[in-house]
Amino acid sequence: MISKLPKWVWSGTWALAFVGGMVNVVGLLGFEHKAVTHLTGTTSLLATALASLDGPAALHFIAIIGSFFIGTVLSGFLIQDSTLKLGRRYGVALFFESVLLAGAVPLLNRGNLLGIYSASCACGLQNAMMSTYSGAVIRTTHVSGMFTDLGIFLGHFLRGLPVDLQRLRLCLIVISGFLCGGIAGTLAFHQLHYAALFIPATLTATTALVYGGYFVFQRRST
After folding, report:
1. Which pTM does this prediction carry?
2. What is the tally of helices (H) and strands (E) in the chain?
3. In the chain, at which end, N or C, are there fewer CB atoms within 10 A of the end residue's CB?
């Protein structure tokens, strides 16, 4: 049960879900046509490659999964906690994510698979960074869990059971952010191609600066 989320968590969650939606669409529309913000489909593709004894494809999917995992490790190393709390080094993590996304652009423009791995690493970093707050699991690079929770809430409502309105609000924020990011990513990709990733890279860098400024302000006011 979420007691009370501060405004910086609500706004930051939507912004990062927007980033996740943009990055995933660019991955889907790019030359590999692969989702990079979550690993469900990639793991299934790895399974089919292993079953088909397709070594190069299996290594490619392992690299995507491994890159995402490295991003989560980097997040754990930087933030050193699994609980969302003001004062953690989220600004540093967001800066690294921005660098990974921006660095993916020239690689993808050359058809280099390292660009996909860089974007996947950025998504793993982001997904691990927004971990938990007040018992609420927050994931901003995929929405399966959010839709699952919405279904549970509807089932509870139909049975006359209480619904956690704060958690419902969180689900809607993540879903709307991811959807809007996907729309923006599609429009940007058609105009900018892989350079569209500069947009989420800029957003994460800006968010890092805003968070850093907010944290400094909070420290000075206490």
Report:
1. 0.87
2. 8, 2
3. C
174 or 132, which is more confident: 174
DSSP secondary structure of 68-113? HHHHHHHHHHHH--SB--TTSSHHHHHHHHHHHHHHHHHHHHTT-T
List CB contacts of 49: < 8 A, sequence separation 6 or more. Answer: 57, 58, 60, 61
Q: Which residue has the tokens 């979420």?
A: 2
Q: Is 193 exposed, middle or buried (0-12, 13-18, 19+ CB in 10 A)?
A: middle
Residue 119 identity: A
Determine the pLDDT at residue 142.
84
- What are the pLDDT digits (tens) for 43-90? 999 999 999 999 999 999 999 999 999 999 998 888 876 556 655 678
The CB density around residue 111, as the number of other CB atoms within 10 Å, is 10
Decide yes or no: CATH 2.40.128 for domain 11-216: no
- Is 80 exposed, middle or buried, given 0-12, 13-18 or 19+ CB atoms closer than 10 A? exposed
